[in-house]
Q: What sequence folds into this?
């Protein structure tokens, strides 16, 4: 290109670079250094790139399908639930073990077998929804020529995760790796996950409350922690509010009671053979709570789950005197397996609001080059939890079109 000599060209450059800030800067992600080999429970925020069976999502991440359903509070008692087809663009939380590899927190338990017409970019941006980049897959597998991918190659897919010692502001927390979408604002993300902008900025070491499409944030979800002995195989179990987790070889399910930070576990509703779940020296079963009003207060006895060790379900009888007898415990409601993308706050807004049915899937999250808001219709009521998001989208689309206009002008001038 010849040397520009027109003021409008400089204006164009300034505006173009500010538009690049939104579109073409390298996506940021949060890196947590680590030193020991310990692991923790973490979650991936994953948006389905196409209709997939529960079992297909599970094999994409090599995670137990029942655990995925329970992490999303989906009722597992539905007949043939593992073959239920989940709709494209559904947002799911995928439970994953977070490890420490080469001094950095990441999950390395996922492998992908390449299929015809896959490219590293399509695997990263589409299949794994932008949770990984093509470069990261290339590096993890020492792929020398990414243009030649043999069908059936098993690729390690490193995925982002964080532990931060299982706490956030000294309270138990599980970290969700969340891929920022075009319509997202930090305030919107904070609201959706019941945290604050300040907290998200602190956790992700952000200098300003700005996010760009494709960034990966570690979002702390308030959780209930266990206090199992170290020798339990599920030592350190921690369950985010609103999720359920399976333990003890599918025999026990645990969750937070609503409005409480204590982990509550009970026998799972799955037909598997389990060791005894009765508390010793008691007729109480795991999860049973008895209350007895006395002159001193309320005598509460619970039979608690205390971890899984050597094939045995450990139980612990706990007695306490409380000022008042507790009411019945309440839990996050279990949802029917979804057939459509719910507009519920539990789920992220659909990445492409103008999506209108199967077959019209054009861009998938992460692989999209549409600037933030460019793919969204301002004011689409189906799209967002907040009006401010639509406003922001309008501004971005406006600046996008303005820049396109300037580009055309500058071409006219330079020709
Ligand atoms: C960490 O893992 C390595 C290999 O996986 C093992 O040799 C080492 O003993 C582990 N260290 C600890 C502290 O668990
Ligand atoms: C990690 O969390 C535990 C409580 O869960 C706390 O006792 C410990 O001090 C924390 N460690 C660090 C390094 O923050
Ligand atoms: C837990 O989630 C429920 C909704 O499922 C919400 O009403 C409640 O405020 C949450 N509690 C905490 C401590 O985040
Ligand atoms: C104790 O727990 C078992 C298993 O969940 C349940 O079937 C039973 O009804 C409970 N009993 C009481 C008294 O709550
Ligand atoms: C586990 O249980 C088996 C059989 O009950 C026993 O032989 C073994 O010593 C136990 N191992 C541990 C570590 O407790
Ligand atoms: C609870 O009640 C039992 C019998 O009713 C009594 O033996 C026990 O001391 C009481 N526990 C507390 C903590 O008050």
A:
């Amino acid at each position: 290109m010849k040397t520009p000599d027109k003021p409008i060209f400089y204006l164009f450059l300034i505006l173009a670079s500010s538009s690049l800030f939104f579109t073409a800067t390298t996506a940021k992600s949060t890196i947590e250094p680590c030193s020991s080999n310990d692991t923790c429970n973490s979650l991936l925020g994953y948006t389905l790139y196409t209709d997939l069976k529960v079992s297909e999502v599970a094999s994409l991440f090599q995670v137990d399908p029942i655990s995925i359903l329970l992490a999303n509070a989906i009722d597992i008692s539905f007949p043939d639930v593992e073959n239920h087809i989940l709709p494209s663009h559904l947002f799911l939380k995928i439970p994953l073990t977070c490890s420490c590899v080469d001094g950095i927190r990441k999950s390395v338990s996922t492998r992908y077998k390449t299929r015809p017409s896959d490219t590293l970019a399509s695997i990263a941006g589409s299949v794994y929804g932008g949770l990984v980049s093509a470069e990261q897959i290339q590096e993890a597998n020492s792929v020398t020529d990414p243009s030649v991918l043999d069908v059936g190659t098993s690729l390690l897919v490193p995925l982002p995760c964080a532990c931060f010692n299982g706490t956030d502001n000294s309270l138990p927390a599980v970290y969700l790796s969340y891929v920022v979408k075009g319509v997202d604002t930090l305030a919107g993300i904070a609201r959706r996950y019941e945290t604050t902008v300040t907290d998200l900025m602190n956790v992700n070491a952000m200098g300003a409350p700005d996010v760009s499409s494709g960034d990966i944030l570690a979002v702390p979800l308030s959780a209930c922690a266990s206090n199992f002995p170290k020798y339990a195989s599920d030592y350190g179990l921690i369950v985010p509010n609103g999720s359920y987790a399976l333990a003890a070889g599918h025999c026990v399910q645990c969750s937070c009671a609503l409005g409480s930070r204590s982990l509550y576990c009970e026998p799972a509703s799955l037909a598997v053979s389990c060791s005894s779940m009765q508390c010793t020296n008691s007729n109480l079963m795991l999860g049973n709570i008895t209350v007895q009003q006395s002159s001193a207060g309320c005598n509460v006895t619970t039979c608690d789950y205390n971890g899984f060790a050597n094939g045995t379900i450990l139980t612990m009888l706990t007695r306490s005197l409380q000022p008042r007898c507790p009411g019945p415990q309440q839990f996050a409601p279990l949802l029917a397996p979804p057939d459509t993308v719910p507009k519920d706050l539990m789920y992220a807004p659909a990445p492409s609001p103008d999506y209108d049915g199967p077959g019209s899937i054009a861009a998938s999250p992460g692989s999209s080059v549409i600037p933030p808001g460019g793919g969204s219709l301002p004011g689409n009521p189906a799209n967002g939890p907040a009006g401010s998001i639509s406003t922001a989208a309008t501004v971005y689309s406006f600046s996008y079109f303005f820049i396109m206009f300037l580009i055309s002008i500058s071409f006219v001038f330079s020709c």
